[in-house]
Amino acid sequence: MDVPLIHASELSLDDLEVVKDLAAQNYSLKDIAAVVNVEIRSFNLSWKNKESPIYKAYRRGRIEIEISKSEMLEQRILEGNITAIQEHNNLAHQRWFDDIKKDVFDL
To answer: Residue 6 in 3-state DSSP?
Structure first.
């Protein structure tokens, strides 16, 4: 028997931890909503609100995995890996360009 779906506002702290973990693993919003048993519409609406617990948990998961990736890249750079150095330079250039776009277009 299927468990009834809940509204996004009913998520527990444990559910938000699952949202964070799945976001770090690049799961889609639809998949995350299904795992925590939330109506997809209310989940998406909550995710679009940057002040919502769902958005914050999702964002935290994405940031934490980026930090881990950066730390691993840094370790490879310190070991003298030329490819890692090039990858780091490319990422730095992309971030610089993204910052300029945000500044110019007020995003």
So the answer is: strand
CB neighbour burial string for 27-65, b if at least 16 within 10 angstroms, e if fewer: bebeebbeebebeeebbeebbeeeebbbebbbebbeeeb
Q: What is the DSSP letter of 24?
A: H
Question: Which residue shows structure tokens 């370790």?
Answer: 75
CA 36/CA 40 separation, integer angstroms: 10
pLDDT by residue (tens digit) across 74-105? 999 999 999 999 999 998 999 899 889 888 88
- Per-residue pLDDT at 1: 53
- The C-alpha atoms of residue 88 and residue 72 are separated, in whole angstroms, by 11
Residue with tokens 């779906």: 5
**Residue 62 scores a pLDDT above 80:** yes
